[in-house]
TrEMBL record, chains A, B:
Domain of life: Bacteria
InterPro entries cross-referenced by the UniProt entry: MttB-like_sf, MTTB_MeTrfase
Protein name: Methyltransferase
Enzyme class label: transferase
Disordered: annotated span: 1-53
Similarity section: Belongs to the trimethylamine methyltransferase family.
Keyword terms, alphabetized: Methyltransferase, Transferase
Entry's Gene Ontology BP terms: methanogenesis; methylation
Length: 529, 529
């Protein structure tokens, strides 16, 4: 069953094998007409939910267990302001300093919680609607290294690396948002790091940005910068293009005191918050998948109480981010099947609550963008998408169990996530797609025409080509013969070339000269002008 | 959020970072006790079905459309023997030479069809129970090239390559069967090729084998060889260790005349058959996912009628194998999201009929075992597993859109499929796994002990370590520091080394000397003794 067609000559432009005669010119003409956004085969915010790792009974059990944990174990270490807010709403402060949450309180606050969060881009075309099981993919993390692909090495990550990641994200269709994926280790002052992180991200992309702040005392300056970039506080509040990724808990079942203070200031400042619970299954969370989900759900429910007791309906993302641990070594692992299940199980809980939710998917344990990276990134990314996770964080570029970020992998991730999104879109079943009429025509012919015996070049096939099929940008589909004739294209080398091409162009996201001068006059910006 | 633990020293044997103090010795002790097969975290035949790409209504629509296609379009080109068999059962032969199938006939034959096929290994420990949504992964295909990983090249595949693939498959836990993945191109005589294919496969593995035969006239010799290997015809019939992968249709909607004759001889000879319909979506099948599924279901239902009209209840696998086509070029593509959906949608139809089913998953368009290969292989493999596909064919080692087979990729596929199987196993939710008692103990302590504040080293975590977690053999989880200290292990280089180690050992599957001498006396065996 050789499937090659050796007689077809390769296209001189693409090096691709030509199609069977007849339909090719028509296909080229069809491709020349650029598709409008709503005709593209994949888009941000396609709805998942066809994959349900747990039964409805199991989901209800997890919910019940989380409520029990909140009622009987509760959380320690809330800041005084948080204690006041939550006790005011009905939480109970124990002699052991732990806040416990009666079930009715949790249910009341769930009723108040914002269900239809839209995360804003600096440009409205990048707004993200987090309702239902709509799926979005983006970066995230706090990697401390950059992957040096050409040198087969790791080095410290810098502010320029972060800015470059923002610029690359800006032009990749399937990376829908930029959460700060790495730390600018070349900036030693923490306030300057926070400010320059905002600058480097926002000057690189008009997509929605997420970041964290290293100290509550930084918030006035950081908000001032955000308001300047937006063109005024009211403008920012109307369309907050940045959300606060906030590790408000230290699992198991403790509030992160200072992060909670930061969160309160972000809420007052008009920023959506990501309520991020990042337990490690086997270390800071139970080793079992179900147990880790119970604990992270309980912690995020405490966050829902906190936010809505303070500011009812404030936009918040239910950020259950349990991670895996390699129990042989005690080292973190994020590329496993267990990780993919943790993430997909969390997505199912978000859907149960009807709350916008996020979790980590798509990160790899591999050090380089190799086959392992490919299988690990796809496994959790596609399962997250199929389970309907609203925000898939860490979805591209993340290596070495979150310790390294890789620009080339980010670029390849665009292809990988495009494929995952095609799977999320799923199978449309109707009279047109079932194609019985076409089948009859192709097999039996009509009164006017004999049976062609194949579907090539039919109108239905041509219209399907661009509207329903996803084509990889760098993924290679050549036959071995074409591949050899085209100097054996190398995936990683092509990603390097694409990175260089992206970074050589002038970014559409950069600030206009007046704003840039204002920002540089007010703050110490480390990126060259 | 640096997650490295720089103070921990690497294990001198493994180079892995040591765990936090305390639990490590206990973990090592726990690992020393080898797990029995039923305690392993993953096994052949775990049940999927948590992913359902189509609604129940859509599944019913596909079924109805397939019945309509069989009733109104029917299939051409049945051999005279097949016409006699199917007309005898109630099919209608039209003036146009097409056999059409009344709905009641299809439903009657579905009722007769064997629902609980067990495919036999030469060793019973490799038997495959295809009931329900039990999932098995294996090789398949008819690649004409071998991937030369070290030379970054392709070359013709040989009988020795096939035998080596069998030997490698034999020792990989997560490759559950060997269907002939490549053609022995160094054997020019087709009968000798068929015979040597049987020999090379069966002498390399005691797992279940699938193969095809290039001409019906080869069947007497091939059956003779199979009976000799089994130790007698009756022994083979009792435990047929080989099934016939039979492309009994030429889509769209035509029987493959000679293959049907072969199929009849296989059925009479006691071999299970794989009813394989391999349409290309956009060429020999409708371009839409739903349409391609309708057609392949219709074709396989015709096969069910054929088999059961001839031999009621004969073991047959519902082999809907629709493939994708890159509509820009007319070239085959098997690594896409569309392909993964085709395969998962087919699995859902198999479950609807309650029939053992198979489809292609895990093949890649990439030429080398690179990141693209990883993401493509995982995408369709994990979706096939989650959808509960009984037999995932082409699941490992397959490159260049089925044109090339790669031993190193087969070895890496064992890790990849192990991860997919972990996902198939899913999330267990019960009082033990939800771990509320542990959470209370870890957070609150007990009367006798203070709260440890973490889950490391608890009994629950230790028992979880080996029974619930899958560890990759070659996938690397080191920190960048460990990785650098260990000479930057390279995934593909390690796969090459493993291949060489496997092929350097004496195979447990090889024939005993007496049988081997008999086979070599009776047939021209091209493999060196």
């Amino acid at each position: 069953m050789s499937l090659d067609t050796p007689n077809a000559s390769p296209d001189p432009q693409t090096g691709r094998r030509a199609a069977r005669s007849g339909g090719r010119a028509a296909r080229h003409a069809a491709r020349a007409a650029k598709l409008s956004d709503d005709m593209r085969p994949i888009r941000p915010g396609m709805s998942g939910g066809t994959y349900k790792p747990m039964s409805e009974t199991d989901v209800a059990k997890i919910h019940e267990a989380a409520l029990t944990a909140l009622e009987t174990i509760g959380l320690a270490d809330a800041p005084p302001s948080g204690v006041e807010i939550m006790v005011g709403a009905g939480a109970l402060l124990g002699d052991d300093g732990r806040l416990r949450f009666p079930r009715a309180l949790v249910e009341d606050m769930l009723a108040l919680a914002c269900k239809d969060v839209t995360l804003r881009g600096r440009h409205p075309r990048h707004d993200l609607d987090l309702s239902g099981t709509r799926v979005h993919y983006g970066t995230a993390g706090a990697a401390v290294n950059m992957v040096d692909v050409m040198g087969n090495d790791y080095r410290d990550s810098t502010l320029q690396d972060l800015h470059d990641a923002a610029r690359i994200t800006d032009v990749l269709d399937n990376i829908h948002f930029l959460q700060r994926p790495m730390v600018a280790r070349d900036i030693t002052d923490n306030l300057e790091m926070d400010l320059n992180t905002i600058y480097a991200c926002a000057a690189g992309t008009t997509k929605h940005i997420g970041t964290s702040f290293s100290d509550p005392s930084h918030m006035p300056d950081c908000l001032e910068m955000l308001y300047m970039i937006a063109g005024g506080e009211d403008v920012f509040r109307a369309r907050p293009f940045m959300s606060n990724s906030n590790c408000f808990v230290v699992p198991p079942m403790k509030f992160a005191t200072e992060s909670c203070e930061t969160m309160e200031m972000c809420i007052r400042g008009g920023m959506p918050v990501l309520l991020l619970s990042a337990g490690m299954s086997g270390a800071t969370a139970p080793s079992t998948t179900a147990g880790a989900i119970v604990q992270s759900v309980a912690e995020c429910l405490a966050g829902v109480v906190y936010v809505n007791a303070m500011a009812p309906g404030h936009p918040a993302i239910f950020g259950t981010w349990p991670f895996g641990l390699d129990l042989r070594t005690g080292a973190m692992t994020v590329g496993s099947g267990e990780q993919a299940l943790l993430t997909a199980g969390c997505a199912q809980m978000h859907a149960f609550y009807g709350l916008p939710g996020g979790a980590a998917g798509g990160a790899s344990d591999s050090k380089m963008p190799d086959m392992q990276a490919g299988w690990e990134q796809m496994c959790s990314n596609v399962m997250a998408g199929l389970s309907g996770l609203n925000m898939v964080y860490e979805a591209a570029g993340m290596h070495a169990s979150l310790l390294g970020f890789c620009h080339e992998s980010l670029i390849l991730g665009d292809d990988l996530i495009g494929q995952a999104l095609r799977c999320v879109r799923g199978i449309e079943v109707d009279d047109e797609t079932m194609a019985l009429d076409q089948m009859a025509q192709v097999c039996l012919g009509t009164a006017d025409a004999p049976a062609p015996g194949h579907y090539l070049g039919t109108d239905r096939t041509l219209s399907h080509m661009e509207r329903d099929c996803v084509y990889p940008a760098l993924g290679n589909r050549m036959s071995p013969k074409e591949w050899a004739e085209n100097d054996r294209p190398n995936l990683v080398q092509n990603a390097i070339a694409r990175k260089e091409a992206i970074l050589a162009t002038r970014s559409e996201a950069r600030f206009d000269a007046g704003l840039d001068a204002q920002l540089r006059a007010r703050f110490n910006i480390h990126l060259p002008a």
